[in-house]
């Protein structure tokens, strides 16, 4: 009876031990799963915030309404995820307090992003961009990252404590089971069976946890990769914004594109001013698929359609005509053409090639690069146009009076520094008003155009030809002595006398030009004095009968006569 009672007690005790151990393990498993769910919620909240910031930045840079839709779609998600995090930590008041603090920080961040949109609507886009740049910098990012790390560390500490308690409970159960071996083989076998079963459950749970951890690590790696790509894109934008011309931008593009799009090759193709040809302007890597370097814009389907080609989900990927079929041994090479657009104008195309298929994140990055590159090149083109318009005469294409004043001061200082002579030539077409009144203003404009072309052909590359006003022109001849300047003036006078002006198929008669020549004095001189001397010499040539050259010297700055006009 005692043995039977002991056996029954042993069985009951063993059963109780196994039950307690199983309950402890299930409780540990539930808490472990809960901790990983909290960490997953933290990750989702961080990713939603990054997506909102990226979409807002894309909208500020590109004015793409689609990016604004993405931004507004993420805001309720951030609020929902942060609220869920607060609810999930209700069992742990200190952790819930941290979750509430993180939620407040996120709401403050969202409020700042909404304020940026308000600034954009008020017209302060640059201020909004600066606020966004400050927000995603290390100083602003640090509170959220710090709060996230603290919550993550707390959850990890809870996991370690629960693991220690579970290990202690398992050890006690093991010792009790070993003691039971002395009382009966049946009880031992039963205990072993139960332990093996529990171990299998544990291994299965460990595998599930390992899988969840791997997925979490992959998500974190993708997040880091996205942040790195956005940082590189920001650096490329800053480099392009510092460029002064399209040619300078094209010099820095190949290494930048090769760095941002590894394992790819391609080229940047720009459309010419006549809009009838697209020509390669920059290239990186070695193209696996041969492409024409000069082709008609209609030969590229991306330029024809105004959107990237081929699309990632296109079932039929028609080949652009500028790609030469059968000119490669790499049958697995893929390609992508992205149009470069700016303010409704098509500037060219970004052509990218790689071996193997292009991953979705690579495709998205390439399209973003194309959008940013189009905007930057459009801005540089506009800057070049405005710069040319500010220094060129719109009719003749020669430099204007404003550029003359700046250039003359610079060349005089340079000549004085190197102790070299400089000649200034002022030219005036004889009887231009009578010619204009006789043949009309169109004929007068044609005469000015042909005379300007003659001046461009008659000067050196370092000489400067300017339209001074009306029918008066000025030539700056650096490093030119008196004899050379006189010879050049005589050549121009004879060329003008021999010039045949045609307008609407009719010859309009011969013309002559009067020239006033002034040389920079050995002691240096001021621009006003040199211009005044050349002007006086020109009037002297007019009074002496026109179609001649008069030379004057520049007086010292203090003795320059005052203009009485």
TrEMBL record:
Top enzyme category: transferase
GO CC annotations on file: plasma membrane
- What Gene Ontology terms describe what this protein does at the molecular function level? diguanylate cyclase activity
Query: Any transmembrane segments, and where?
Result: 172-196
Might you name a Gene Ontology BP term for this protein?
Answer: negative regulation of bacterial-type flagellum-dependent cell motility
Recite the UniProt keywords alphabetically. Answer: Membrane, Transmembrane, Transmembrane helix
Reactions accelerated catalytically = 2 GTP = 3',3'-c-di-GMP + 2 diphosphate
SUPFAM superfamilies per the UniProt record, alphabetical: GAF domain-like (SSF55781), Nucleotide cyclase (SSF55073)
A Pfam family it matches = CHASE3
Q: What is its EC number?
A: 2.7.7.65
Q: Which PROSITE patterns match?
A: GGDEF
Swiss-Prot/TrEMBL cofactor(s): Mg(2+)
- Asked whether the UniProt record includes Membrane among its keywords, one would answer yes
Domain called GGDEF: residue spans: 420-554
Highest taxon of source: Bacteria
Q: Which PANTHER family match?
A: DIGUANYLATE CYCLASE DGCM-RELATED, REGULATORY COMPONENTS OF SENSORY TRANSDUCTION SYSTEM
Write down the NCBIfam families for this protein, in alphabetical order: GGDEF
Q: State what protein this is by name.
A: diguanylate cyclase
Q: Which organism is it from?
A: Oleiagrimonas citrea
């Amino acid at each position: 009876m005692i043995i039977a009672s002991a056996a029954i007690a042993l069985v009951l005790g063993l059963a109780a031990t196994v039950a307690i151990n199983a309950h402890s393990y299930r409780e540990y498993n539930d808490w472990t799963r809960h901790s990983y769910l909290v960490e997953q919620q933290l990750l989702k909240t961080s990713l939603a915030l990054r997506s909102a910031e990226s979409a807002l930045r894309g909208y500020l840079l590109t004015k793409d309404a689609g990016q604004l839709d993405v931004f507004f779609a993420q805001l309720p998600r951030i609020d929902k995820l942060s609220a869920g995090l607060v609810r999930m930590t209700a069992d742990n008041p200190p952790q819930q307090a941290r979750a509430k603090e993180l939620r407040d920080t996120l709401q403050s961040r969202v409020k700042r992003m909404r304020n940026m949109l308000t600034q954009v609507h008020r017209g302060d886009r640059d201020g909004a961009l600066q606020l966004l740049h400050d927000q995603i910098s290390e100083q602003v990012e640090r509170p959220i990252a710090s709060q996230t790390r603290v919550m993550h560390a707390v959850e990890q500490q809870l996991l370690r404590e629960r693991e220690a308690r579970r290990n202690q409970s398992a050890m006690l159960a093991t010792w009790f089971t070993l003691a039971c071996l002395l009382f009966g083989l049946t009880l031992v076998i039963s205990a072993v069976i139960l332990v093996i079963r529990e171990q299998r459950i544990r291994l299965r749970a460990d595998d599930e946890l390992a899988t969840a951890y791997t997925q979490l690590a992959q998500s974190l790696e993708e997040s880091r990769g996205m942040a790195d790509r956005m940082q590189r894109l920001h650096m490329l934008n800053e480099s392009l914004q510092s460029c002064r011309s399209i040619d300078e931008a094209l010099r820095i593009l190949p290494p930048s594109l090769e760095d941002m799009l590894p394992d790819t090759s391609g080229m940047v193709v720009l459309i010419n001013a006549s809009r009838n040809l697209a020509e390669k302007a920059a290239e990186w890597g070695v193209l696996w698929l041969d492409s024409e370097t000069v082709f008609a814009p209609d030969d590229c389907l991306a330029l024809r359609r105004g959107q990237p080609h081929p699309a990632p989900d296109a079932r039929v990927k028609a080949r652009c005509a500028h790609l030469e079929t059968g000119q490669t041994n790499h049958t697995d090479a893929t390609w992508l053409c992205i149009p470069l657009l700016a303010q409704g104008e098509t500037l060219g195309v970004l052509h990218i090639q790689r071996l193997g298929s292009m991953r979705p994140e690579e495709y998205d990055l390439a399209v973003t690069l194309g959008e940013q590159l189009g905007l930057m090149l459009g801005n540089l083109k506009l800057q070049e146009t405005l710069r040319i318009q500010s220094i060129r005469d719109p009719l003749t294409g020669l430099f204007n009076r404003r550029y003359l004043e700046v250039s003359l001061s610079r060349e005089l200082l340079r000549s004085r520094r190197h102790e070299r002579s400089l000649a200034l030539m002022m030219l005036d077409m004889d009887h231009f008003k009578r010619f204009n009144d006789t043949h009309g203003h169109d004929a007068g404009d044609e005469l000015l155009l042909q005379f300007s072309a003659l001046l461009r052909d008659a000067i050196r590359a370092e000489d400067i030809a300017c339209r001074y006003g009306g029918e008066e022109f000025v030539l700056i001849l650096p490093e030119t002595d008196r004899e050379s300047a006189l010879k050049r003036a005589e050549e121009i006078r004879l060329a003008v006398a021999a010039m045949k002006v045609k307008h609407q198929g009719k010859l309009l008669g011969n013309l002559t030009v009067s020239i006033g020549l002034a040389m920079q004095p050995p002691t240096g001189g001021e621009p006003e004095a040199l211009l005044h001397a050349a002007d006086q010499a020109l009037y002297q040539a007019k009074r002496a009968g026109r179609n001649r050259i008069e030379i004057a010297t520049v007086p010292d700055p203090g003795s320059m006569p005052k203009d009485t006009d």
